[in-house]
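Aim 2 progress update. The chain analyzed this quarter is reproduced below.
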Amino acid sequence: MKIVIYGLSVSSSWGNGHATLWRGLIRALARKGHEVVFFEKDVPYYAGQRDLWELPGGELILYSDWDQALELSKRHLDGADVAMVTSYCPNGVAATDLVLASKARSKCFYDLDTPVTLDRLEAGEDVFYLGPRGLADFDLVLSYTGGSALSELQTKLGARRVAPLYGSVDPDVHRPVAASSSYASDVSYLGTYAEDRQERLDQLFITPARLLPDKKFLIGGAMYPQEFPWTNNIYFVRHLPPSDHPAFYSSSRLTVNVTRRAMAAMGYCPSGRMFEAAACGVPVLTDSWEGLDAFFEPGSEVLIGNSTQDALDAISLSDDELARIAKAARARTLDEHTADKRAVDFENAIQDAMSRRPHETAGVA
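Predicted structure tokens:
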């Protein structure tokens, strides 16, 4: 298939979880013989932190304004098997109009931020990447979040056919590597700062650091404010490109995962960071949410932390027990949560949508 995507950014992973997911998924699709063309608006924020200039297995098209995108789209869309718009696409409404008017065989929307989309809709706020008809005109709507989110995309945004396309990991990139003294820690946390994660981060990371001054805690990420409650044993790495994630995780005795509030409330929302850490062979302590057990077995593949005491109990586990949990999570990840597996899920969802006539496409795949 030829797949044309209008998205946020694949060229910069700076404060942007979309990029890492797309890189792995596009490589996996290319291995299966598909051609991917990714349109990305060239904005200063990402241009200044760009860490990818060519798309292995695909074509990256950077455009400065929408008129340029229109001109560049002419040679791609009419011959496309799949044309897709994603959440947070800077020109989402214009891209939707373009995709829907094209001759592409299947016209899709991929919401990588479904809980945020639905939260803003519920609050009466503008969702800048959605047009006045919502998702009603797409042949297929894919969602990074499953569970009740799928039916809400239908009832609130008119999606005719929906299917989950969860996060994933590229095990060729994220794998156990030698520990690095630069990232050595007892407990690590990798993630962009978000106010709605702060309460849980305090419970699982910051307060344990205060209570365990002899342990080293390490945060990697962007956008952390000066008033963040640092302690003497919390260290900070401002930004890690995806190429450094394996060393970051492999140098940790335990890593923490904290889910955005809207995602946790909706459930069925595994973050890419969970899969990355598990693929790198580090045990994960995560907050709980509905559907977590569909991805990892609590207690045996991941540790659950809903309080500071849960975090302290996890940190106190023996090296052997932590290694057992990490090994089980890595095996589950390599079996079920790789980019190659998601590429198959994508193919199946597209083929199923293509095989149905328009009046038959309602439902959850």
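The chain is about 35% helix and 20% strand. The mean pLDDT is 94. These observations will guide the mutagenesis experiments scheduled for the next reporting period.
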